[in-house]
Amino acid sequence: MAVFVLFASLGQAVQGQTVQDQTAQGQTLQEQSVQAQSVSVQDQPAGPTSFRRVAPQWIAALGDPEANSGTGAERWGLWQQDPGPRGVKLEYCPLLTAANGVAPAGWRYDATDWWLEEHGLIMEQPVFPLPAGRYVVTGGRTVQAVLTVYPADSEGHARWELSSGVRLHDVTHLPCRAARYQAAGEGICSPEQADQQQFPVKPGAVMPEVDGCRKQDYSVLIVIGVAVQ
Fold first, then answer.
1. Which of 2, 189, 197, 216 could be disulfide-bonded to 31 (CB atoms 3.0-4.6 Å)?
2. How many CA atoms lie within 13 A of 177 on its CB side?
3. Cα–Cα distance measured from residue 152 to residue 75, given in angstroms and rounded to the nearest whole number
4. Residues near 132 by beta carbon (within 8 Å), at least 6 away in sequence
């Protein structure tokens, strides 16, 4: 899931709002190269807001790709660091199990609730839920936007909203594919049952099904800035 992202100035992109740029120059991630050229952020909600740049983080999001807002953000998660390079190859799943589920990078594998990325790497789960707040997000293509995640209501439901005119698809990083796998019934749902020939997954495509598993595909949004409290 690693990616190079060429950032536009947040101070220019988030018009009428202040940005505190705290990212070291030359800070990059690995592997894929995505050029975010002619980047713009659509109209923001009224009222001044300050944002500070952060090292890239990744949101696992659920929702209609064509939607500009919706509910269900309580089921969104956040990776604060790229889970791809920290992942474990499918063929090493028996070794991961033998190590009591502790991956070389230190995260713990849950055999009842596990994740795959586009190269067929078993990866750590994101942290749930995504905290309420405002995030500058991008799909690494042509659009940046402000994502607002509202606090959950009394029933635990949380709304989300993108700045005007931006769809969830517009800020989805298509090369990053992510899916969650859980047992579909009383049978076995294991990464060892995944067909390694179906990887890598093409940008924008759905993740492969795995026998015995219930799959949930997630959209991946790249976070490049957060609102200053």
1. 2
2. 21
3. 11
4. 149, 150, 151, 152, 158
Q: Is 126 helix (H, G, I), strand (E, B) or coil?
A: coil
What are φ and ψ of residue 169, in 5° steps?
-60, -35
CB 49 within 8 A of CB 134: yes
Domain region containing 80 = 3-227
- Spacing of C-alpha 84 from chain mean position: 11
**CA neighbor of 141 nearest in space, from 204, 82, 227, 92:** 204
Start-to-end Cα distance in the chain: 29
pLDDT tens sequence across 86-131? 999 999 999 999 999 999 999 999 999 999 999 999 999 999 999 9
- Cα separation of 124 and 113, whole Å? 10
Element (H, E) at 97: helix 93-98
Amino acid at 177: R
Q: Give the Cα separation of 151 and 148 in Å (integer).
A: 10
**Two structure tokens written together for 213:** 């598993």
Decide: residue 106, CB within 10 A, 0-12 exposed, 13-18 middle, 19+ buried: exposed
Domain count, the chain: 1
Task: Quickly count: other Cβ atoms within 10 Å of residue 177's Cβ.
Answer: 25
DSSP string covering 175-200 = T--EEEEEESSSS---GGGS-GGG-S
Q: What confidence score (pLDDT) does residue 186 get?
A: 84
3-state secondary structure of 32: strand
What span, in angstroms and rounded, lies between the C-alpha atoms of 165 and 40? 12
Length of the chain: 229
